[in-house]
Amino acid sequence: MAHILIVDDHPLVRAGFAQLIGDTPDLKVCGEAADMATALKLVELITPDLAIIDLSLSGGSGLDLIQHINTKNSNILMLVASMHEESLYAERVLAAGARGYINKQEAPEKIIQAIRQVLNGKVYLSEHMTERILNNMVKGSDDKRDIDALSNRELQVFEMIGQGVAPGKIAEQLNLSVKTIETYQAHIKKKLGLSSTHKLTHRAIRWILEQGQQ
């Protein structure tokens, strides 16, 4: 059973998500938070499998929270559920460390679909947003050339990063040490001209979307 943390400053929204998740046999709400400070405390105490996060929070933004959680425990998956325009924020939340974006107005079955997709290690975006990112990738002809510079092992690590696999899990699956994976990450960032791990993750996710593996 997957344990879900709900982070939203509107009690009615939290109640709605809690009921929806509670009616799904293999999902369970393990905590609720209305602000950034409470959410960070619960993340440390509970270590949920997935956090559903709104962008507008008391005491900080959802983007800040995503970055904090990703820094503290990159194994915790995150899905943004917000009323903000997806086209303005989807790529930003992916770059910050979340694995998906869904509008709160979507039908309940769509929200459950998004939760399951992220829990399965995939990225969730609307079809429109996915198409937009893919179109941007098609225009960016330099991207493919840069990817070609990666070694076979680097490409394998890059692909797993784009699929949402944490460094510890990558090391486990490839029978390597975490330090070795971090070295591969450093090499990939250098070859692709990326200045941070967040930018590496964002680039890897976009590449996965381009390959049609979302």
Q: What is the gist of this entry?
A:
By secondary structure, the protein is of the alpha/beta class. Helix content is 59%, strand content 14%.
Q: What can you see in these coordinates?
A:
With 214 residues, this protein is of the alpha/beta class. It folds into two domains: 2-125, Rossmann fold (3-Layer(aba) Sandwich), CATH 3.40.50; 139-210, Winged helix-like DNA-binding domain superfamily/Winged helix DNA-binding domain (Arc Repressor Mutant, subunit A, Orthogonal Bundle), CATH 1.10.10. It is 59% helix and 14% strand. It contains eleven helices and seven strands. It has helices at 11-22, 36-46, 62-72, 86-96, 108-119, 127-139, 141-148, 152-162, 167-174, 178-192, 197-210; strands spanning 2-7, 27-33, 50-53, 56-57, 60-61, 77-82, 101-103. The protein has a five-stranded parallel sheet with strand order 2-1-3-6-7, with helices on both faces. Strands 4-5 form a two-stranded antiparallel sheet. β1 (2-7), α1 and β2 (27-33) form a beta-alpha-beta unit. It is globular, with a radius of gyration of 17 Å. The two termini are 23 Å apart. The relative contact order is 0.11. The mean pLDDT is 88.
**Distance N to C terminus:** 23 Å
* CATH level-4 homologous superfamily of the largest domain: Response regulator
Number of helices: 11
Q: Give, in spatial order, the strands making up the sheet with the most strands.
A: 2-1-3-6-7
CATH class of the largest domain: Alpha Beta
CATH architectural category of the largest domain: 3-Layer(aba) Sandwich
CATH domain topology of the largest domain: Rossmann fold
> What is the domain tally?
2
Helix content: 55-70%
H/E element sequence: EHEHEEEHEHEHHHHHHH
Biggest sheet descriptor:
5 strands, parallel
What is the total tally of β strands? 7
Helix/strand class = alpha/beta
Low-confidence stretches: none
